[in-house]
Amino acid sequence: MSKNFKALPIQLSDKLVAEIKEGNSLFQKPVKENGMPAFVKPVNPITGKGYSAMNALILGMQRHDDPRWMSADAARYAGNWVKKDEKGTMIEFPKTSDIQAIRTAEGKVIKDDAGVTQTKTVEFDKPQRGQAFLFNGSQLNDLQPLEEFLAKQNEGQTLSSIERAAKLIEDSKAVIIHGGQEAYYDKQRDAIFLPEVEQFENETKYYQAAIHQLAHWSGHEDRLNRPMEGKFASLDYAREELRAAIAGILIGGELNIGHNFGQQKAYMSNFAKILKDEPFEIAKASRDAQKIANLLLGVSQKREQKQGAEMPGFKKGDEIAYMDTTYKVLETYKTKSIKVEDGEGARKVLKPDYGLYKSLLEAKTNPREPEMVLEEEQGQAEEQGQQQKIGR
Question: For the Polyvalent protein metallopeptidase domain, which residue ranges apply (predicted)?
Answer without folding.
Answer: 163-287
